[in-house]
Every structure is written in structure tokens, then in C-alpha cells.
Amino acid sequence: MEDQPQQDRAFEFDGTWQEYAPIAFTNLLLTIVTLGIYRFWATARSRRYLWSRTRFIDDRLEWAGTGMELFKGFVVVLFLFFLPVFLLNLLSQRLLLSGYGLIGGAISVLVILSIYYLIGVARFRATRYRLSRTYWRGIRGGSPDPGLVYGWSSMWKNFVGTLALGLLIPWSMVSLWNERWNRMSFGPYRFESHGRVEGLMGRFLLCYALPFLALIGVAVAMVPMMMAAAAASAAGADTDSPVFAGLGAAGMVVMILGLYFLIGFVVMAYYAKFFRQMVDATSLHTLEFGFTASTMDWIKLYLVDVALVVVTLGIGYIFLDYRHWKFMVSHMHAYGEINVDELTQSDLPELHQGEGLLDAFDMGAF
In whole angstroms, what is the distance from residue 347 CA to residue 188 CA? Predict the structure, then answer.
């Protein structure tokens, strides 16, 4: 996790893992001692450090959110969402067991649709909250939109994208990115995003075809193995011996691991192109943004993540937030000019309730 010097540019990160280590280990200890409750304060503490070590143009970012805000958001969701869902599930099961299948099934479908709707709302509100608690030169961002309409858009666009044999998933991803960021602002200026699907379908179709190609590949790989086993049996070798069984098992393990790596590589190639293309299509007033991470950059990031967690028997997990934030900032660029004298504070109300929905769905990407 060595930190390399960065060139002078719009976004810079000058934190070090040595500085972050005391924060990470203290967060881990307090989270364990409090049976997980401290994790909200741990998140706020980590963000304060990472934001404070991130420079944009001529000033550092500041994270103004608190652990209490995140905790309150989670508690609100717990009582307003999870408790009703739990009770509706009990009611649905009771109705099904009592012979009221139609009503019980309808309630189950309603619960599932509600979850899909709220996942969209969660993503929108988390972005809004993070912008509203991020300050640069005393200016913050946000959105006047509560995200309720976006929740419907997320639900039907994901449904359509998946229903069409999955072929419209890139369209739904691009459309939702544009819709989400076009409703966000920073200071007096709105973000604008005009991302397009063109350029993504080639990589997506490779993801789409991968399962079929994998089956063909496994079948092709099995042929020489079966021929070798038949030849050995004809020569009088004991194909039921532990040696042959071990070789067969090793071959299967190698094929499975290779398949997982191939799937990860192809999916990452699509996502890397998607993220680059969408960031490039996003702007703020006179500023244009860009993201330079290639597919191999993403793969190296996650391979090192896995190695770090495995080698440290799981303890290295506490450094992943640091690594991911540094990765994003190191590859983020901004082009154009900004007149800081024209910047005024956002007139949007400050948000004092955190990412409860996103955290509840365990989708709280840092």
C-alpha cells in the first residue's frame, strides 16, 4: 500500500495508510466492543480523515456529517420499513397457511415491489446526503428532490432492462445515472449528465454471452481429460486410485477458479468502461469531469483487496475504504475553469439524517 507522489492537478489525495491505521484499528475495536453500533461513528470518522486529505483545485474537502446522523437514519428505517415488512411477511404467511392464497400472494408481491422501489430511493438519498455534508470552500451540495420519483424510475427501468432478456440493462444503468445526477447540485450550480449507451454494448454482450461460452469451454476442456482417463484405463492403470481422483479434483478446481476469474474480468471490463463513460459525460457549470482507471486498474485494485484480506486473516478489511477512496480520487480529473468569486452557498436545507436506507440494504459503497 505504498503511496506514490501525484502530479499537480484538480483532484489530489495526500493521505497515507500509516496515518489512517490508528483510525481504522480504533474503529474496529470500538465496533466490536459496542456489538456493531459504533460503525456509524466509525464511518463518519473515516470520512472526516479521507475528505480532509483530499484537495480539489486550491482547497481541501470537509466532511460535516456525524455518526449520530447515520445512526438516526438507520433507526428510522428500522422502524418505518423493516418492522412493517416483517409484519407483512408474517401476515402473508398466515394467510397462505389459512387458504387465502390470492391475498397472501398479493401481499408478498407488494413487499417485493416495495423493496425494489426503496432500493432506488436509497441510492438517490445517499447521494443527496453525501453531497449535502461535503464542503469545499464552505460550499456544499445536495438536491431539493427527496428521491421518491427516482424510486419509481429505478424500479420500472430495472424491470424493463431485465425483462428484455437482460439486453436493456446498459440502457437502464445509463438512464438512471443521468436522472440521478441531473437532480443534484453543488453550490448554485446543477450537475448535468448526458451519458449514452453507445460504446457499452460490445462489452455488455460479452458479459451476456459469457455463460454460454463458459459451458462450451468446460465441455472442450473435459474432452482431453476424459480421453486421458480412458487411455489410462485401457493401459491397465487404476483410474479409481487416489492419485487419479486427486488429479481430477485439481483439474476441476483449476477450471472453476479460471471461470470465476474470467467472469470477474469480463464484468469488470464492462463496468470500467461504463464508469469512465458516465463520469466523462458529467459536468458542473463550466467544469467537465473525467475518470482514467482502466479495466486492469480496477482488477489490480480488487486483487490486492482480496490478497490483503486473506493474508491478514480478515483484518485488512479495515483498510479497504482507504484504498477505494484513494483509487477514486487518484483517477478523477476535472477540466475547465471555475470562478470562485461567483460561488455562493446552496440554498437547499441541510440534511441531518444519514444513509439509513442504503445502509439497511447493505449497499453503502463508501
Answer: 8
Task: Please write down the HEC assignment for all residues of 243-308.
Answer: HHHHHHHHHHHHHHHHHHHHHHHHHHHHHHHHHHHHHHCEEECCEEEEECCCHHHHHHHHHHHHHH
For residue 37, what is its C-alpha cell?
A: 453500533
The total number of residues written for the chain in this structure: 366
Instruction: In whole angstroms, give the CA distance from residue 91 to residue 45.
Output: 41
Q: What are phi and psi of 354, to 5 degrees?
A: -80, -155
pLDDT band at 88 (very low <50, low <70, confident <90, very high): confident
pTM above 0.85, yes or no: no
- Residue 153 in grid coordinates: 424510475
Backbone phi, psi, residue 281, to 5°: -90, 5
Q: Helix 39-52 vs helix 67-77: angle between axes, to the nearest 10 degrees?
A: 140
Beta bridge partners of 287: 284, 336
Task: Write the single-letter amino acid at 10.
Answer: A
242, pLDDT greater than 80: no
Cell of 175: 438512464
Q: Note whether 362 and 340 are within 8 A (CB).
A: no
Check: CB of residue 172 under 8 Å from CB of residue 161.
yes
